[in-house]
Design goal:
The complex is a heterodimer. Chain A is 37% helix and 29% strand. By secondary structure, chain A is an alpha/beta fold. Chain A is elongated, with a radius of gyration of 24 Å. The two termini of chain A are 36 Å apart. The N and C termini of chain B lie far apart (47 Å). The chains are: A alpha/beta, B mainly alpha. The interface between A and B is medium-sized, with 28 and 20 residues.
């Protein structure tokens, strides 16, 4: 478990002071994949570096498995870091060493026996799918392969926590997927708690259980990925959700429909089992309405199907109101698109 | 020609031993100083601003004094260390004072080229400052360090030519006393020719070694 307790990080002092983090309170439960998303300059980098004290919080406490890191001696911090793996955007591998040696490095620092090191590194390379690359050098590998080496290296000391610092931001979409799958496997097979910082909403959607939205060093919103995606509260969260749920109607279409008297547009959001029902055709028959689907999308968040429709209702105003009530009775969210442009 | 082949051979050996010994000692001094210049700077492993500023200043002072002046200025130190202020051994002392700070700067530069991310990764895996220096920084900079030492060696060959001023001997001395002062053009050509070959050979070897370490 990772806990941030009113963590503040300030660089510089006086007028030049930069407040990278202001009063961060976060809890990452054991075994969870927790994502922190924010635009550049939001303070993500400082936040993740506070966990292993690469950056020391100016105020507040960092607890890992209930142990306050900020009170530890340098030696104790070094020992604790062996329980916290970290991977980086630019991999940070040793270019002068082979893949094998890179992965072995954390073990060699602890002066473990050669045979133990060889066994462990061989296993790790097999786990990340690079058993045939042991004797190659990082500059002979692709970006995705380099990140796999980084992951193997981070896992060498059997950590209980893995920190991912924009781990997929330098990779193409396909490679990103394969790295995210690997991270999920690590989380499931070794029950390692993973904290990810990213600016890519796809990363959050693909593997995170929980998400916190960071802006100007403050957590604007946090919750389960499902809740934040289906019902974002803060403006920044909405922006991020929009970035991958491209569900905005073009202005021209909206304006055209606005001018027609018997036309209304509603967003219908349904989840789980209700995705399987023929909702629209029933409504259309029952209330004598014409329905025109302007946008439709169904996706899966944390394994739960989530549908998002934008529908034009054409017909009598009173009938439309009745239809909306009927939909809402099935616990399906309906929002007026024209009146609250969301 | 006013000099014999034996004289040239002897001068060659004097140059080689002057350069060799002064390279050895100045590396022994310059290498740790170069590392200290990197790790004590702001934001680095063992940040220590007063120490960095003093060391940085001292190195600049030595680097500012022209070698010929330095050689004369430190005669008392030379006499204290080797017991005499004249001869090949006596020339090594000022050469070390000259090349040590120079090497420290070159090493500093090479180590600064290492990606900061590597240091961060090392810290994140719980490496001690010593481990970070010797298992991460130095190996990553090795190819560049070899080139730095090559540059220092060539610089030392140049400086050793001036060692004639304290009776240090060597090829430079021969070129000045015979080639220049006695107008012996042949000796001049021969000594300068040997020096050119030495420098070319060293630089090529250095480049080759550095390339081999870099594997490209």
């Amino acid at each position: 478990m990772i806990q941030f307790e009113s963590v503040t990080k300030t660089y510089g002092s006086g007028e030049d002071a930069v407040h990278a983090l202001s009063g961060i309170d976060l809890t990452v439960e054991t075994g969870e994949i927790f994502g922190v998303i924010g635009f550049s300059g939001a303070g993500k980098s400082s936040l993740i570096r506070c966990v292993n004290l690469l950056e020391r919080p100016t105020e507040g406490r960092i607890l890992i498995h209930q142990k306050d890191l900020t009170t530890l001696s340098k030696k104790q911090i070094r020992e604790t870091r062996k329980d916290i793996g970290m991977i980086f955007q630019h991999f940070n591998l040793l270019n002068s060493k082979t893949v094998f040696h890179n992965v072995a490095m954390p073990l060699l620092l602890s002066n473990l026996k050669r045979s133990v090191v060889t066994k462990r590194v061989t296993d790790l390379l097999a786990f990340v799918g690079l058993e045939d690359k042991a004797e190659q050098y990082p500059d002979q590998l692709s970006g995705g392969q380099k990140q796999r080496v980084g992951i193997a290296r981070a896992l060498a000391t059997n950590p209980s926590v893995l920190l991912c610092d924009e781990a997929t931001s330098a990779l193409d979409p396909e490679t990103t997927q394969s790295i995210l799958e690997l991270l999920r496997r690590i989380n499931q097979e070794y029950n390692i708690t993973i904290l990810i910082i990213t600016h890519e909403m796809t990363v959050i959607r693909e593997i995170c259980d929980k998400v916190a939205v960071l802006e100007n060093g403050v957590v604007q919103e946090q919750g389960s990925v499902f809740d934040v995606f289906t019902n974002p509260q803060h403006a920044t969260s909405k922006k991020f959700v929009k970035s991958i749920m491209n569900d905005q109607l073009p202005e021209s279409i909206l304006n055209e429909i606005k001018e027609k008297e018997h036309h209304q547009i509603y967003r219908i959001q349904y989840t789980g089992s209700s995705t399987g029902q023929p909702l629209l055709s029933r409504i259309s028959r029952e209330f004598d309405l014409d329905l025109n689907v302007l946008y439709g999308n169904i996706t899966e968040l944390q394994g739960i199907p989530y549908g998002n429709l934008i529908v034009e209702f054409i017909g009598d105003r009173a009938q439309i109101q009745q239809a909306l009530l009927s939909i809402q009775q099935q616990n399906i969210a309906v929002k007026d698109v024209i009146n609250h442009a969301s | 020609m006013l000099v014999s082949t034996d004289q040239i051979t002897e001068a060659l050996w004097e140059t080689i031993s002057m350069v060799g010994f002064s390279l050895l000692f100045s590396t022994l001094i310059g290498f740790p100083l170069g590392i200290l210049l990197v790790v004590t700077r702001k934001g680095h492993l063992l940040e220590n601003a007063p120490f960095f500023n003093v060391l940085n200043g001292i190195i600049n002072v030595f680097r500012s004094v022209p070698f010929i002046i330095l050689m004369v200025a430190i005669i008392p130190v030379t006499r204290f260390i080797v017991g005499t202020s004249i001869g090949t051994a006596a020339a090594i002392v000022p050469l070390v004072f000259y090349a040590g700070p120079y090497i420290a700067r070159l090493i500093e530069n090479s180590l600064l080229e290492v990606d900061k991310g590597v240091v961060e990764a090392a810290e994140a895996m719980g490496a001690t400052p010593g481990q970070i220096i010797f298992r991460f920084l130095v190996p990553e900079a090795l190819s560049s360090l070899v080139l730095a030492l090559t540059i220092a060696t060539v610089g030392l060959i140049g400086a050793s030519a001036m060692a004639g001023a304290v009776g240090g001997g060597g090829l430079g001395d021969l070129a000045i006393t015979y080639g220049y002062q006695r107008f012996d053009t042949t000796t001049m050509y021969i000594t300068v020719g040997i020096l050119i070959i030495m420098v070319q050979g060293l630089q090529s070897t250095g480049n080759l070694l550095s390339k081999k370490i870099r594997r490209s």
